[in-house]
């Protein structure tokens, strides 16, 4: 069982309103989102597209609900654009999160990503060249140094439809980057959906994992997405992702491995679904009860 003093439990707002498809959950307000998060028993959240960017306003809204900001997604384009362009946007993002008290910055390489493209998810993922791998690793090391200026860490988010999706690609990135500057965000759902063994990746990279996304996958829907050659966003609409305890992933060995390693940090429930089909509060409670039962926190 995990120790309560070691971990914080949060949930991502993407179950209430989707950043990539704003029409999903368009009627759900920021206040409803964070209120229902708190009602379901969570104490943290990442940042969604409806969250106030004024730090005083955001902090007050969260403090009223005993909530805090765990991190927020940052899109890097280190393989396709000059480093300086990514760094300028990163510094603004870093300073916002620093003001909100976050300790880690979620970074995903979106150069050549097919997440928003009209191509089959399981057939069209980008494959980086040697030059792109070098640009990515060097750029992440440089961003890591800028994060350390604020005593923060970057946590790299491996992701479906990007150049860092598979176990081999995660391994390569970790080998090519400085462990003191680049940490890893561990996402159960993206590994499972890619056909990887989430437990293997967890055990391999435990010392560098400083942020965790707990995402489940509906195996039957994932098969449908593959057979029908659906896009990533079509897969989301069809419900290929769900919350822990409602899909096909066995989280027990994941929780056991995190517990035995004395993992310290955030556990964030994340499941991009259509809130019209999967009531956000209902699914937040499903996940919260499951984690309490299976992980002891």
Automatic annotation (TrEMBL):
Pathway where this protein functions: Polyol metabolism; myo-inositol degradation into acetyl-CoA; acetyl-CoA from myo-inositol: step 2/7
Molecular functions per Gene Ontology: myo-inosose-2 dehydratase activity
Enzyme class: lyase
Pfam families: AP_endonuc_2
Residue intervals of the Xylose isomerase-like TIM barrel domain: 37-284
Name of the protein in its database record: Inosose dehydratase
Keywords in alphabetical order: Cobalt, Lyase, Manganese
Cited Gene3D superfamilies: Divalent-metal-dependent TIM barrel enzymes
Record-listed E.C. numbers: 4.2.1.44
Organism encoding this protein: Halobacillus salinarum
Catalytic activity: scyllo-inosose = 3D-3,5/4-trihydroxycyclohexane-1,2-dione + H2O
Lineage start: Bacteria, Bacillati, Bacillota, Bacilli, Bacillales
Domain of life, per lineage: Bacteria
Family indicated by similarity: Belongs to the IolE/MocC family.
Cofactor dependence: glutathione; Co(2+); Mn(2+)
């Amino acid at each position: 069982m995990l120790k309560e003093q070691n971990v914080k439990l949060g949930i991502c707002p993407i179950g209430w309103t989707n950043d990539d498809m704003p029409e999903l959950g368009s009627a759900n307000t920021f206040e409803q989102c964070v209120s229902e998060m708190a009602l379901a028993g969570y104490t943290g959240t990442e940042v969604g597209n409806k969250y106030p960017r004024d730090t005083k306003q955001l902090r007050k809204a969260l403090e009223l609900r005993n909530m805090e900001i765990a991190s927020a997604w940052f899109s890097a384009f280190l393989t396709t654009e000059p480093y300086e362009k990514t760094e300028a946007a990163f510094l603004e993002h870093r300073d916002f999160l620093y003001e909100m008290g976050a300790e880690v910055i979620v970074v995903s390489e979106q150069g050549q990503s097919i997440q928003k493209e009209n191509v089959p998810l399981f057939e069209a993922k980008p494959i980086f060249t040697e030059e792109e791998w070098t640009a990515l690793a060097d750029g992440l090391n440089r961003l890591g140094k800028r994060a350390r200026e604020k005593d923060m860490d970057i946590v790299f988010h491996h992701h479906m439809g990007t150049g860092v999706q598979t176990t081999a690609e995660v391994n390569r990135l970790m080998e090519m980057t400085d462990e003191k500057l680049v940490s890893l965000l561990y996402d159960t759902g993206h590994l499972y959906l890619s056909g990887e063994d989430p437990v293997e990746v967890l055990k391999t990279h435990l010392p560098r994992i400083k942020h965790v996304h707990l995402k489940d996958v509906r195996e039957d829907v994932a098969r449908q997405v593959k057979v029908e050659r659906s896009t990533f966003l079509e897969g989301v609409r069809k419900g290929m992702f769900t919350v822990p305890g409602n899909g096909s992933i066995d989280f027990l060995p994941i929780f056991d491995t995190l517990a035995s390693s004395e993992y310290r940090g955030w556990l964030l429930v994340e499941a991009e679904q259509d809130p019209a089909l999967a009531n956000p509060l209902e699914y937040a409670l499903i996940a919260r009860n499951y984690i309490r039962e299976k992980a002891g926190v």
